[in-house]
Amino acid sequence: MPTLPNCPKCNSEYTYEDGSLLICPECAHEWSAEAETTVEEQKVIQDANGNILQDGDAVTVIKDLKVKGTSLVVKMGTKVKNIRLVDGDHDIDCKIEGFGPMKLKSEFVKKI
């Protein structure tokens, strides 16, 4: 009898199969059995020139960007250090000097 994996949420060893799903009776977490066997691909985030971005990179803004909800504008050529890549519509979390925390789209930056 094959052993089933522990629950990824609470690490319980009492998981069971229900059709194509694996279920944890302790925390009620359900996940696909096929997801366990496939290797998850990481999303590759590229800048405007096609260079691959990574956490901690420094980038430059390539276009004037209006800051939503204010009259401020992030000017073209603004340097942003120590970016963090995130999932979602805006790929980059960062702090811009003079503006504070920001979310940027990778299509509007280039890697330094």
TrEMBL record:
<dbReference type="InterPro" id="IPR013987">
    <property type="entry name" value="YjdM_N"/>
</dbReference>
<feature type="domain" description="Protein YjdM C-terminal">
    <location>
        <begin position="45"/>
        <end position="111"/>
    </location>
</feature>
<dbReference type="Pfam" id="PF08274">
    <property type="entry name" value="Zn_Ribbon_YjdM"/>
</dbReference>
<comment type="similarity">
    <text>Belongs to the YjdM family.</text>
</comment>
<protein>
    <recommendedName>
        <fullName>Protein YjdM</fullName>
    </recommendedName>
</protein>
<dbReference type="InterPro" id="IPR004624">
    <property type="entry name" value="YjdM"/>
</dbReference>
<feature type="domain" description="Protein YjdM N-terminal">
    <location>
        <begin position="3"/>
        <end position="32"/>
    </location>
</feature>
<dbReference type="InterPro" id="IPR013988">
    <property type="entry name" value="YjdM_C"/>
</dbReference>
<dbReference type="Pfam" id="PF03831">
    <property type="entry name" value="YjdM"/>
</dbReference>
